[in-house]
């Protein structure tokens, strides 16, 4: 049996109360192996980001449990939750809106270090500098503010800020969707390297099946608040059983259904995938 860092059982999240309540997450159960990556995919509005917010307790679940290595985060009071918050951190979708534009990169990354009890300004700065270096930014970045960085650089600062809390679980909520294709690849490589070095566990939320295939070992597919299919990522995306998952896959592989610029390498990949499928069926 796998050593699971995170076990979510029968999670329900509702917005509103009484007869006007909207059930955004409906009886979801999932596990994330320690040191592994679970991806959650599905169309917009299916409940992916609500799960992310529930895991980091930005919202309180209506019912169910969120067991992080023996501690049920869903049932803790705010006071009880405070010393647990560093264990689960989030990298947000919007690298432009998730960082305070008035703070320097040093201040942004040092803040979680101070919150964890480090009072020495020198130690705070040294640790922040080490994290900035670890995510591939120069030391000169420490004194600059978010508007002076590109989207990819801002996301690296967001990752450094999350790492400053020394988390066990990193929740990445569409962490690459606002970045162009080449920068997406750089951020994914960084996340994979950090996982190998630090043993981090990831819950990766995305609507991009290519990103999911690259980053995760296991995957669940959601629709209207429920899980419709789950399994090993490569198997699930190569041979989906549910009609909804098949439609998601067809949409991802059909250039005519894509919006925006279609990179040449992606078109070539699609063509190669289709040729391979044709050979298998021949």
Itemize the secondary structure elements and their pairings.
Elements: E1 4-15, E2 22-33, E3 37-41, H1 48-55, E4 63-68, E5 71-72, H2 78-81, E6 88-91, H3 105-115, H4 121-134, H5 151-164, E7 169-173, H6 181-198, E8 201-205, H7 209-215, E9 218-223, E10 226-232, H8 233-238, H9 243-253, H10 264-281
Parallel strand pairs: 3-8, 3-9, 6-7, 7-8
Antiparallel strand pairs: 1-2, 1-4, 4-5, 9-10
Helix pairs in contact: 3-4, 3-5, 4-5
Could you explain how this protein is built, in words?
This protein has 282 residues and is α/β, with parallel strands linked by helices. The protein folds into two domains: 4-239, 3-Layer(aba) Sandwich (Rossmann fold), CATH 3.40.50.300; 242-282. The chain is 39% helix and 23% strand. It has ten helices and ten strands. The strands form two sheets. Strands 6-7-8-3-9-10 form a six-stranded mixed sheet, with helices on both faces. Strands 2-1-4-5 form a four-stranded antiparallel sheet, covered by helices on one side. Helix 6 (181-198) links the parallel strand 7 (169-173) and strand 8 (201-205). The longest helix is centred in the C-terminal third of the chain and has 18 residues, at 181-198. The radius of gyration is 20 Å and the shape is globular. The model is unreliable at 254-264 (pLDDT under 50).
